[in-house]
Each structure stands twice: as structure tokens, then as C-alpha cells.
Amino acid sequence: MGVVGQNVIRLDGQDKVTGRAQYVDDITMPDMWQGVAVRSTIPSGKVLSINFNPSFNWKKVVIADRHDIPGRNVVTMIEEDLPLLVHDEIRHIGEAIILIAAPTKQIAEEARRHVEIKYEEWEPVLTIEDSKAKKRIIHGKDNVISHYKISKGDIAKGFGEADLIVEGTYRTGAQEHSYIEPQGMIAVPREDGGVDFVGSLQCPFYILKALERLLGISASKLSVKQATIGGAFGGKEDYPSVLAGYASVLALKAKRPVKMVYAREEDMIVTTKRHPSVVRHKTGVKKNGTLVAQEIEIEFDGGAYTTLTPVVLSRGFLHSFGPYFCPHVKIEGTAYATNTPPNGAFRGFGAPQTLFAVEAQMDKIAEALNMSPYEIRKRNCLKIGDEMPTGQILKESAGGMECLERAAEMSDFENKWKEKKGVGMSFFLHGGGFTGSGEVKLKSKAGIRLEKDATLTVLTGCTDMGQGAHTVLPQIVADAVGVPLKMVGIETPDTSKVPDSGPTVASRTTMVIGKVLCVCAEELKKRLSEVAGGNHRDFESLAKAFLKKRGPLTIIEAYEPAPGIHWDDSTYHGDAYAAYSWGCDVAEVEVDMDTFEVKVERVYMVQDVGRAVNPQMCVGQIEGGTLQAVGWALTEEQRYDRGRLLNNRMQTYIIPTTLDTPEFETVIIEHPFSHGPMGAKGLGELPLDGGAPAIVNAIANATGLRIAEIPVTPEKLYEAWKKI
Amino acid sequence: MEKNIALIINGKKRKVKAHPAERLLDVLRENLKLTGTKEGCGEGECGACSIVLNGEVVNSCIIIFGQLDNGDEITTIEGIAGKKKLHPLQQHFLECGASQCGICTPGMIMAAYALLKKNPKPTREEIKEAVAGNLCRCTGYTKIIEAIEKCVISNVKI
Amino acid sequence: MRYFKCENLTEALGVIADKETRFPLLAGGTDLIVQWGGRMPEGIVDIGGVEELKLIVQRENVVEIGALVTHGTIVASKIVQRDCSALVDACKTVGAIQIQNRGTIGGNIVNASPAGDTPPVLMAFDAKVELTSLAGRRHIPLREFYLSYRKTALKPDEILTRVIIPKPKPGESATFYKIGTRKAQAISKVVMCVRSIIQNEIVEDIAIALGSVAPTVVRAPKTEKFLMGKKLNENIIDEARKSLAEEIKPIDDIRSTADYRKFVAANLLGRYLTDTFLRSPSA
């Protein structure tokens, strides 16, 4: 019997429960200094002067400004508009202007307090509305960072056929990742002029690419290694490139290792957030609940620079219609620039925002038709053979209907809903892997090394940030090769030792890298047999025979997308994702009508992941992702005053504690994906999609108050109640 | 003006020298190299720096060295396992999948440890209250509560 | 930096009597160390080891709680559980266990946060605070202790040494309410304590104290006066709710809004009166 499907204990677990695991702040090096950045205190304007107050002894520290950047003052992501240090224009509060390194953090902090900066202030653009109205042009010609538009069928005809048209506008706020370990990076100058990095990061090869330009140093003289990561959730996808930039500029100038670990407040002020959104729906339906027209308009607040906004908007856009079939669809999505820190990747990557909107809209439609929320979802659920708005035909692995039916049954949804017991449902799908042709372009690599002692080592640039990749991938390899799990280890992601597996994002690690490893396993077995074929009682004896002849062997393969997958970037037409994971959540809430406090009592979660490689870890992902959605739905919101973050502490940014956590009932179902490893699809992001709409719909069931903007705070409920 | 204090750290007597205004968290991590205790927020909100001081769980980020007295007993995550065996709490955290990224795990285990020392048979609600000062962003807490409950059921002496 | 580790009260009072060494007093540190945020004052007067201020003493008509008694100790105290269970309920909501184990009741009082959890209970109970200097001791009602936002009647050479709570009279009941930002580790949006004697549906005595609705913790004298001597019924309860909503003047801030706070405070008073009314023997 294999280990895929078994609750294997996480391989890095011993180190974590004993406190031995080395996170970036636990790492010390001889002669290592501490770095800090001096940051803008205005959202828009320019620097007039920088004064170093003479009451501080500046000889104790090293100061770096943009002229100390050896290459180009730009952090390469999708575009090259993000400077490492303010060039001419300040575009948000917290932009780094100069950098300081000092022997201790206290000295660095003291130095930072003695830098006085004078500014010329400009009127900032702080909201989607102001940006759209071109209150001032702060990005390109029209403040638009990114824009997409698609249509299917004939929207006018669709509305003409409708018995009822329902409109709704839905808003979501900025969400902070709140990983418990703040961002951190160490840069170590090498004798050959290069730099080695170790840090808390999701995507080592992103940093390599960005730093090559920034430092003007060839990638062969750079290496990036992950320390143990104390949570990331997308927050450590792009931002670590910025931090690596700061640390390395200082390290090269100070000629010694420099560590930069953010204090919580700084982390909250300057790092990325989930994009705030406004989504407008106009939906045409038949009396029996059948959707005939969906017109959707999406607006995201991208923040001050492009960073990952185009791809976040793209994913949001491609999930905005929900897991439903509709013959006539028109969708338009736009991301606008504002003078706030760039918004970025956060688990779900745009999809939770648009799925919140469509799922709140579905309940509004059901209410207008006097239909049950379950009934309307079942009636419109995407099935195999259906055409999606991008023209994609759903070919396989569609567990949506089963998710719906199981969740409704286990939660006794229909009865509780009729009795207004405070239940709400959400139904959602999530595409695994990069959008469209992303995986084709990435051609991600991973490998297996046969070691001298006949054990195997998994080689991948995909990091373990707690999600369990470094347990799940060895599980897949063990079964694919046919060896016990104890024979399989995994190399620490270090760009000098592992191939580029693409970023650890987009629910792609298990599905995509797991698949590449399966291909590697086949190739490995083939090569071993070719050289040392004959009768061997097991893999170990075959491997030993091979090793005797040839010595260690490394197999590296690249991802080949599933056959028959096509995507056209210019028309946004085709197979947006190779496979979708599906889910249905039912939330039960209690609302105290004296205080409008909402208690989420229980959430039922039925999710189709293709194949659960490690069921216990899958449940862990589902419970954890759902709780992040509970927070986003009820309490989590970053609030700004003129571009300045007001709640920049864990005391004021409210994430759930044990006492805010509902009871979870999780069911995993498996509709295998033929091109996934052992059938597995993506999982990491899926759970975040369902929590918020289920809760908001449950609140409406309990109180009759349908709130179209999250977080649904008691204050908002009270305001809505006052109006009726 | 550093100060010497004779402490008992993880069962061993140690003379510790540090500045009285230094945070206990930094004394543990930097002077004593006990880096199992983590910093998450630096203001007593997240509980990642939880340790047990004279039998009570406390946040080491908001205690300064000068507040300690000779003879104070400190237990950190490094001090609860046996020579060859994990502490039952550690073992149950492992088996239940209660640790994902792991950064909250040491503090979480220390809060549970202090609870079980005082109250070996807590209810589920008492367990939730005892670790309500420890934020976890990965697990959704359910597996953490389950791990502590399993430890209670297993009847081992903490 | 100077660090005074005081072993007894006289020593501590001596240190702060001298203007040269009048540095901040440090007890549990759960608020102060956060406020300092790594930028330490020039000196610290650490009174955490003053054992004489760590006692809970029961006297004939009062319970005395030393300023350095932690919230955790109060939660576990049989005396306080019996004579002032609302204070136990309040202490259970201060931060989380880690904070309750270090934070002291004296610290919670002198921190003078309008959102503090224990002061509304103490104020509803007509508690007094004992302020001590080398010159002697004085007792003032907690109601008179808070002068304005974060300002107290404590003189620079004084230490708040004890809080003195009258024991409940026959028929007296009290309830603590906290509406916070979440279920644990919460800062209050509204924090409130109501104490009353209601016999035969008649309000014989009532005290209403609230936090997070004004620059300091406050009582609601107009509403108290309105209720005194009234026979409770739905109308009176409704009027009392309205009266309280009018009487308090909360603000919009990061945690909540003025309107919501009024609404909640009024509803909590309504809930208290209704519950107490329903429980009262003749109802």
C-alpha cells in the first residue's frame, strides 16, 4: 500500500514542535549588521531635502541611497515600474527613501529617528472612485493598471429573454495576511562579488530574477535559500524581492551580512494586502431560476505600482461568474492605481473578491424569485460538457454538484434555511495552477536525485510555508517510484541546488510540480532499468545495481500541460485553467440583535480536491483557509486616513482567536483530474473562496439584513437595521 | 549597567547577565540562544513569545529583564521534552497536524503546558480560553484544540 | 538608565519623593512596556516586588485589593468571586491569560484608559482608591480619580496602593458587559457595569458605569436618577434606555462609531433591567 492518501506526519514537524526550526530571525552570522529603511510619511509628492541630524554619530552606521544601487533602481516583477528606493516621485506612505545598516537594531532604529526629510506634498489619489475619475493622473495615461473584457453569446438577447433582472454592487476591503512571522531577509556578500540570500520567502527564483537587474550581478553569482517560513499566504510572493533588494544594497556597501526583519507595525504598513474591490452584477434569470444573462463589472484597487495586479485581476475576472452555466455573459475588469502601498497576492488571488460578489448576488436572486439558495445553485451548476464564458468546455473532474448535495444534506440546509435559523450557503470553484498559458510559459522544472545510498531526494524550488509541500511531494515521489517514504527526502529550496519550479503560489505545487515529479519518477525507473535491468526484488536493489555501475543520478523534467489545453492571451479565450477544484460551504451564525455581534457557530465544508494526497493536511488547509475567510467576512479590514494605515498593530487589526472560531465539519471529495499526480488538483486557495459569502448569506437568513460589503461589522449591521 | 540574576532556566541554574531594560524575549533568544521562543508582534498580542514563568504563562516580549528576581523559574519550548522522547503535547501536536508553519507552535504549546500543569482535566472550552492569547493564522485552531484534548485524554502526567 | 528595584512601599515612595529620581512606576508592564515600544525612559521604578501590595483582604464592610494583585489572582480569588463577581468577569476579559498573569489591577486603574475593563466595575461599586505618599495616605472615590482623558488625581509623589470595594448589600446584584472587537484579547467598544438593588420590582438603588463612551470611564447619573425609586415595567425600561443613549457622548474612532455605542449601551441597560426584573422574586 502506498503513502498517497495517508495521513503522513509532516517531515519538518519535529523541528517545529521542539523549537529547533530555524526561521530567518533565528539565524545569526558573525559580524552581521541590522538594516532598516527610512520611509516616506506622505502618500504623494517628492523629497525636497534629507538632513542627517548631527546629534547622532553617523560614523557608527552605513547609509545607502539610490545611487548605491549597483544596477537599475527597479524591482522587476511583471512590469518594471517599482523602484527599490524613491526615485523622483513618492507614490505611497512607507516607500523607502534611504537605507541604514548598523551593528545592532537599536542603533539602526536610533539612526532612523535622526533622519529628517522635507517633502513637497501633492494631492493623493486614495480610492478607486478618485482614480477612475482621474482626480489626478498617477499611473500611465488614465490610472488604469490593467483591463480585461470578454463576452459570450449575446448579452442583450439574454436580458431580453429574462423574466427578472437583478442588480447588485458588492465591495470588499483590504485584508492583511497577518502571517505570525513578519517578513525577513539576510543578504551575505560573497568573495566573488555576488550575494547569497536566506529569508522568509515563497518564490526563490523571483528574487533571483529581480536581483539580477537590481544589482547588475549575473544570476550565477546569486543564490536564494528559504529559511523555515512562518506563514506567507501570498504575502511573501513578491515582497521578499523588495526586502532582498534593501538587504543586499546595504550588505554590499557595508561589506558584511545584513539582516532585515520587520517589526510588526512596519510589516503591516508597507507590505502588500488583498486588493479592495467593487463588483457590479446585473443578472437576468428565468422564473424557474435559470440564469440567462450575467453582466459583471469588476474594479480592483491596485495600489501605487503594478506589481502583481494584472494577474490578480485576471484570476478574479476569470472566477467572477462563479461555478455556473450561463449562455450570455459579458465581463469587464479594471484595476486602478491609488497612492496606497501596492496590493498583491493573498490566498485566492482576486477570486475571493469576485466569488463573494457572485455568491451574494445568487442569494439576492433566489430571494427575489422566492427560491431556496440551494435550489438556484443546483439549477445552474456547471456540468461536464458545459461551455464557460471564456469558451472553455468543462471536460472532466467536475465535483460541483456533489459538493452542493453533500453540503446541503449534512447541514440540513433546506430546513434550517426555511426556519430562518441563520444558515447561508456558498458555492465556488478555483482554477489550479497559473492562469491561461502561464504554465506553458513557465515550463516549471523539478527533479529527483538518486543518492549514493540509494535514497531519493526531491529537487524543487517550491517552498514549504506551512502548507505541507515538503511532505506531500515526497509522498507523491515515494508512490510514483514505489519506495517507502523513509527512502525519500527533499532538498531545501536554494537556487544554487534546485531547479526553477516556478513560484509557490496559485494552488499549483501539488498539481503541477507533483505531476512533474511523477514524470521524473517514470524516467528514473526507465533509466535505472536500462542500465541495471534484470531481476531485482525491489527498487532499492535495482538502484544499488545502477549506482555500482554509474553512481548517483539526477533526473530533471519540465511541466507539460495536459493535452488539448489552449489559451489565447490576446482574446482571453480558451481554457483558463487546466482543472478546477470545487467547494460548497454552509455557515451557521447567531446574531445578537441587541449588539449585532455575529457568532459563526459552525461551518460545513465540502471540497473536491481531485485526490487528497495527505487528507489530514488537506483538512488543515480547508480549516485554516476558511478561518481566514471568517476574519475577512467579519472583522478584518485595513483602515486608512489619507493613505496612512490606522490599524497597524495586531491589537487593532482583528484576526480570529480560538474563541472566534466556529466548529468545522469538513468533507473531502475526490473527482480526479487525469493530468494531476494520482488525480490531485489545487487546494491551497480554494477554502478562502467560500467562507465570506456563506457567512454574509447566513446573516441575511438570520436577520433579513443583506449586507453587500465586507467586513460585516456590527456597526454596519446596525446602520442597515436602522434604515428598515 | 548590566545586572546579574540567578535564574532557573529549563531546570538548570543559570546566572544571567543583561541590561535591566532588555526584553526577556531578547535575553532568551540572543544571550541564551534559546530561539525556540518567537517574536510575532512585540506587544503581547500574538502569544508567539509565550513562556512559563514561575508556573504562569506570560508573554516574554513585554517583560523586561529587570523585572525578574533571583530564583525565578523559566520554562521554554526547549525545556519540556525528555532526552529521547518528545513531550506528550509535542507528540500530539505532531500527530494531529496542529503545526503548519510552526511559528506559533512553541508559544501555543507553552500556553497549553501551563494549563495542563494547573488543570490536568480541562474542558474543551477551558482549552480554548487558555490558548486564546496565542494567534495562529494557518490551522484554524481546530487541530490545535484536538491535540491538547488528546493529551488530556491520554492521562499522561505533564 | 537607572533602574530602581524596590522591595517595599517606603523605598518606592522615597525614590519618587525625590524629583531627581521621579521615574515611571513599573508594575506588570503589560501596558507600559508596549507604550514605551523599545524607547525606554531614563529611569524605571520597578514596584513589582512590593509584596505588601499583593494582598486581597476581607474586612467587615469592604474588600481591599492591593494595587499589585494581578487579574489572574482576582479571577481565582474566592473572596472576590463571592463579593464582587462582576470584577472577576471583567478581569477574565483583560487581554488573554498571558496578560492576566502579569497585568495588575492598580495598573489597569492608573493607566486611565477610557476603555479599561475593570474601572467600570469598580466605579459601579463606588470603590475608593488609596493613594499613598511619604506624607501619608488618602482615600478618594474612583469617580473622582479620573479628571480628563488619561489624567488622574494621582500626585507625582503618590502611588495608588489599594482599591477598596464595599461589600454588597442584601438583594444587590451586578453584571459586567463587554462588547469588544472580538471574543478574546479584545479592546472594548462599550464596557459597562450595572449594579442595583431591585425589590418588589422597585429600583431601590442603581449604579451604571461605562467605559469607551467618554474620555474617561464615567457613571450615568441622569439615568440612575431617573430609575431610582421607579417601579419597573416595559415603559420605564424603554425610557431608561433612551435616557442613557442621550446621556452618554461617545465618539467615532478606530474601533466603533458613536451611534453604535449609544445603541449598544442602551440595549445592555435594557437587557440588565429586563433580566433583573424577571429574576426579582415577585415578578
Topology:
The complex is a heterotrimer of chains A (724), B (158) and C (283).
Chain A: H1 13-18, E1 33-39, E2 45-52, E3 62-64, E4 96-102, H2 105-113, E5 115-121, H3 128-132, E6 144-152, H4 155-161, E7 164-172, E8 184-189, E9 195-199, H5 204-215, E10 222-226, H6 239-254, E11 258-261, H7 264-270, E12 277-285, E13 291-303, H8 309-319, E14 328-337, H9 351-369, H10 373-380, H11 400-411, H12 413-418, E15 423-431, H13 438-442, E16 445-450, E17 456-459, H14 469-481, E18 488-490, H15 509-532, H16 539-550, E19 553-558, E20 567-568, E21 573-574, E22 580-592, E23 597-608, H17 615-634, E24 640-641, E25 644-645, E26 663-669, H18 686-703, E27 709-710, H19 714-722
Parallel strand pairs in A: 1-11, 7-27, 9-10, 13-14, 17-18, 23-26
Antiparallel strand pairs in A: 1-4, 2-5, 3-4, 6-14, 7-12, 8-9, 8-11, 12-13, 15-22, 16-17, 16-19, 20-21, 22-23, 24-25
Helix pairs in contact in A: 5-6, 8-9, 9-10, 9-18, 14-15, 15-16, 17-18
Chain B: E1 3-9, E2 12-18, H1 24-31, E3 50-53, E4 56-59, E5 73-75, H2 88-96, H3 105-118, H4 124-130, H5 142-153
Parallel strand pairs in B: 1-5
Antiparallel strand pairs in B: 1-2, 3-4, 3-5
Helix pairs in contact in B: 2-5
Chain C: E1 2-5, H1 9-17, E2 25-26, H2 32-36, E3 43-46, E4 56-58, E5 62-66, H3 71-76, H4 78-83, H5 85-92, H6 97-100, H7 105-110, H8 119-124, E6 128-133, E7 136-141, H9 142-145, E8 146-148, E9 151-152, E10 159-166, E11 172-180, E12 188-199, E13 202-211, E14 218-219, H10 221-227, H11 234-247, H12 258-279
Parallel strand pairs in C: 1-3, 2-3
Antiparallel strand pairs in C: 4-5, 5-10, 6-7, 6-10, 8-9, 11-12, 12-13, 13-14
Helix pairs in contact in C: 10-11, 11-12
